[in-house]
Amino acid sequence: MRGRADIDVTSEERNEKVRRLDPLRLDEDLRALPKMNETADVAALARVLGGAVPSDESVAGFTPAECLAAMRDLGMYLGSIKRHGVSPFDVVPGAARSLELLGQRTRMIPRDTVYHYTCWNPVGERERLYTGHQMERCLIDAIRTCVPDLAYAVEVGRSLQGEDPADSSYSDKIFSLASYIAAADRAMGDVIAQVTPEFFAQVLRPFFEEVDIAGHTYMGPAAAHIPIFLVDILLWASDRSSGEYLKFCQEFASHTLPHWQEWCSEWMRTPSVTSRVTAALDGFRSPAEAANAESSARGLRQALRSLISFRGKHLVMARRAYHEEIRLYEMGSGGARVELLEEILALTRQNGAMITAATPR
To answer: Is the pLDDT score of 329 beyond 70?
Structure first.
C-alpha cells in the first residue's frame, strides 16, 4: 500500500526518524512557545508561523518524514493561535495552502493529529509543548507509549479477517491482541494518576480546538483519535453498536493514518469478532474445533475486559474534566459528549457479558 512504509507508528525506528527532523528550523522558536502562550502573544505566534510556512517548492522536496515533522511544528502554532481566539488563517493566510500540500503528500488531513503531537514529537529538550507543564508531558508520554501497542492490535486484528475462530491460530492471535489492548488501559491509569481534570479541561483542552480549511472542519490532536476505536469496530462495534458511535468512528478515522482509514471503511461492513466467535460457539464442530472456538472466546473475553477497564477509567476522567463546574467546553476534544462515552462503555460491557455467558468455564 502506497505510503504505508513511511507513515506508520508501530516502528520506534521510524517514529524516531520523524522526531529527529526539524525541516522548518523551528527548534529554538518552539522552546519559547509556552511563554508566548502564557502571555497570549498572538502577534509573536503569528510572526513565527508566517516565517515558517514552507513554499510549494519546499514541500515538494520534502521526504514523507519531513512532511510529518513540518506538519507537527506548524500545528503547534496553529493550535496556539486558535486557543487565543484568533483564526490562524486570518493572521497568516498563506498557511492554509502549505497545510493542504503537506496533507496531500502524507495522505492525511491538512493539520496536525494526535500522532504528530505524541508519536512523532521529540522527547526531552526538543519536545514540542503548548504549556511546558509537566502534566502536558505526562499526557503526551502516556499516549506515545500506548499507541504502538494499539497499532499492533490493529495489525493482529486485520490478520483475523477471513479466518475461522475454530482454527487453532485464531485464539493465539486473539490473546495476542488482548495483550496489546492492555497497554491503553495502563496508559489511562497513568493519565488519571498524573494529570488533573482541571489541568486538562482548563489549560490543555483549549489548544485542541477545530479549524476550518477549504470549507472543511478538522479537529485538533485529540487523544480520542488513537486507534482504540478501530479495535472497537473490529471486536464488536461493526454490527453491535449504535449509529451515533459508528458515525463518530468514521470521523475519527479521517484523522488517523491512511491505511487505517481504508481498513475502518472495510471493517464497518464486515461481521465483528464477537459475532464470528458467537457463531463458532453455536455451530456444529469436531471436538478439536469446539475447543479452539472456546479458546478464541476466552481470548475475546480478555480483550473486552481490557477495553471495559480502559473505557471505565476514561469515563471517570471525562466526567471530572467536563463537569459543569470545571469545563470550558461541553464537547470533548474528539467532538463527543460524555453521554456517548457512557453508551460506548455500556455496549462494550453488554458484549463482554454475552461472550462470558457463552464461554464454558
So the answer is: no
Sign of CA dihedral 101, 102, 108, 113: negative
> By the 8 A CB rule, do 225 and 252 touch?
yes
What domain count does the chain have?
Answer: 2
Instruction: Report which of 65, 84, 70 is spatially closest to residue 6, judged by C-alpha positions.
Output: 65
Q: Which amino acid is residue 8, in one-letter code?
A: D
CA-CA distances (angstroms) from residue 264 to 32, 103, 106, 252, 342? 39, 19, 18, 10, 22
Domain's final residue, options 76, 108, 132: 132
Q: Averaged over 331-336, what is the pLDDT?
A: 62
Contact 71, 24 (CB under 8 A): no
| Radius of gyration in angstroms for the set of CA atoms belonging to the chain, rounded to a whole number | 21
- The Cα diameter of the chain in Å comes to 72
In a domain? residue 261: yes
Which pTM was predicted?
Answer: 0.93
Pair 60, 96 in one domain: yes
With a cut of 80, say whether residue 112 has pLDDT above it. yes
* 107, 132, 157 - which closes a domain: 132
Per residue in 226-282, pLDDT tens? 999 999 999 999 999 988 899 989 989 999 999 999 999 999 999 999 999 999 998
